[in-house]
Amino acid sequence: MPKIMTIDAGTGSVRAVIFDELGNQLGLGQEEWYHIEEDDIPNSMSFDFKTNWGLVCRCIKKATLDASIEDVSDIKAVTASSMREGIVVYDKFGHELWGVANVDARAFKEVKQLKEKFPNMEEKFYQESGQTFALGALPRLLWLKNNEPEIYERVDKISMISDWILTKLSDVIASEPSNAGTTGIFSLTSRDWATHQAKEVGLKDDIFPKVYEPSEIIGKVCTRASGQSGLSEDTIVVMGGGDVQLGSIGLGVVNEGDIAILGGSFWQQVVNIPSDTLPPQDMNIRVNPHIIKGLSQAEGITFFSGLVMRWFRDAFCDIEKIEAQEKGIDVYNILEEKAIKVPVGSNGIMPIFSDVMKYSKWYHASPSFINLSIDPEICNRASMFRSLEENACIVSSINLENISKFSGVNSDAIIFAGGASKGALWSQILADVTGKRVKIPVVKEATSLGGMILASVALGMYDSIKEASVNLVQWEKEIEPNMENHKKYSNIKEKWQEVYKTQLELVDRGLTTSMWKAPGI
Fold this sequence. Notes:
Layout: E1 3-9, E2 13-19, E3 25-32, H1 49-66, E4 75-82, E5 87-90, E6 96-100, H2 108-117, H3 121-129, H4 137-147, H5 149-154, E7 157-160, H6 161-170, H7 177-180, E8 186-187, E9 192-193, H8 195-200, E10 217-220, H9 223-229, E11 236-238, E12 241-242, H10 243-249, E13 259-263, E14 267-274, E15 286-289, E16 295-302, H11 305-316, H12 318-327, H13 331-339, E17 350-352, E18 368-370, H14 381-407, E19 413-417, H15 424-434, E20 437-441, H16 447-458, H17 465-472, E21 475-479, H18 483-508
Parallel strand pairs: 1-4, 4-11, 4-12, 13-19, 19-20
Antiparallel strand pairs: 1-2, 2-3, 5-6, 5-7, 8-9, 10-11, 13-14, 14-16, 15-16, 17-18, 20-21
């Protein structure tokens, strides 16, 4: 039976996963990694490609051992996904020169300079690419040109981090639409580099590699990579993509109008729209190329939802941690058991963390809880925990409404995945807040499965990505919304937006500190 490996390079860790031809996970290898702020470079997040390639190879070996694979030639194909926006640049010999991870914000001065020197250019480029300057590659390359000119002059090619993994495996520098699209130097309609953008701002326009479609074969594992990773030189290397888009096909989000919410460290709300749909004039929603030709994905992002939950757990929930250890269950299950007894609206508590997505001017209020009570029966860990679950769903709901306004695309169902979808209460709250049916897949961490789907098409096991997705994605349950609760949440949602607006004004006045600001704000 053929085996398939996918390598998923996330913000906090990298992992290799081996599947059989039915999509069953056979082996896993995972390593945490860190992206370091460089000395004297504020807001930097460097990608350490030397150390990280070693970690990738360790994950490959761990997964192979975990899957009890004796003959590595049984692994017929390998592909990769990664965090989006992160880039690596190479010299003419294919050696890495410089790399940054996804939320590297060192180019804040360059973002401002671009906006000042080229008025209305961001709006023009956004209509072509669906991206703003904030985390795009244009200001980052300008930073390199301004601050490391010797490195910049040697730059011959650029790729995304998922592409970098495949380059290390195959010695082929290439890219694909779903992740390259997040550079902003890319066309949603042609699914190719918009090199004129680089030229217009004074950057090299000949450093962009060949674009493959996801699932296309770019080569085989090279001799060097075989020796370092233990993979066979007969294993084909298949073009992968961005983590959210691969996660989408791993969730069956393959048709126009499909909606998914991916509940991880950040929450992404994605809606499949026709690729010729123009991005909104207010630039508040991001639009990315889908894995599948003919489709784009309108995307809203909720900042730090999962990370806020982890902070709350670690800062306040020592008692629940002890209870969970005694019962042998996850601490979040304990917290949900307590939070389910709290009424809708969490006794009036309003968390102020992520704002709704405002891609053109992206910043957040100072983290806080508003409208607390000093009555411990009303304001306690359970009610505060529930308020955080409700808030993540409220922000997601507003983002989905904003997507529907410009695209005209809507649906009565949401596919909910990621770690948050394991919470029974959280899933019900999402249904109640949005008023939509919520579908929970069996495989909730779907990015690796999405990679497996691409590789299975490359191997000829399926004729198309859609066909493979339909056959391999399975459903655990569906949740119907409580429409009485939906009415209550609609009122809460309106109040929350007014409160958040006031909290942002405190940041504007310099009285509080923003949770996060995009470069150039």
